[in-house]
Write a structure and sequence with these properties.
17% strand; Lysozyme-like; alpha/beta; two-stranded antiparallel ribbon
């Protein structure tokens, strides 16, 4: 297993967005299940499916600096994509936003973006593998890329969280 063992619910402070550099969650799950993989995340999502790879309370090997505190989700897509290309995959983004909203509600993770400086200062919220790399392992990963539509994604997370909590979205 590619993980660092159990953690308690109160340790979770972040949701970490990754891009899968692939189009199918099944392939992502198979890759992480392979004996040669030295990485892991909780979920992989695509247009039609979601695969669970680790339980929430198991520490993944997703992004150094936010593994012990983060829930990690692989969104099928590519870091090189333009904003338009990301937005052309609305079903994937919306499926991921719903999963992130569930986590934020269940674990009391603030629904706000936390950049690399926020991570360095210990702020909780939603972040990317790129920001975790910039904060803790310079020269690391750049996913989900500079054109990931954070504003749209965050709005969808907020809307789904309101639905989950049974509130009307204003």
């Amino acid at each position: 297993m590619n993980d660092s063992g159990p953690r308690t619910k109160d340790r979770i402070k972040h949701v970490v967005i990754h891009d899968a550099e692939a189009m199918h969650a099944s392939g992502v799950a198979a890759f992480f299940a392979g004996s040669s993989s030295r990485a892991s995340t909780q979920l992989a999502v695509d247009e039609n499916s979601c695969y669970r790879m680790l339980p929430d309370l198991i520490i993944p090997w997703g992004a150094p600096g936010v593994n012990k505190t983060g829930l990690h989700i692989e969104i099928c897509g590519y870091a090189k994509w333009s904003r338009t290309e990301w937005l052309n995959h609305e079903r994937t983004l919306d499926r991921a936003a719903y999963k992130v909203a569930q986590w934020c509600v269940h674990y009391n993770v603030p629904i706000k973006w936390v950049g690399y400086l926020g991570l360095k200062f210990g702020r909780a919220g939603i972040t990317t593998h790129a920001d975790a790399s910039r904060a803790f392992t310079p020269g690391g990963h750049t996913d989900p890329g500079p054109n990931f539509p954070k504003d749209v994604f965050l709005q969808w997370v907020k809307e789904h969280a309101a639905e989950i909590r049974g509130k009307v979205v204003v």
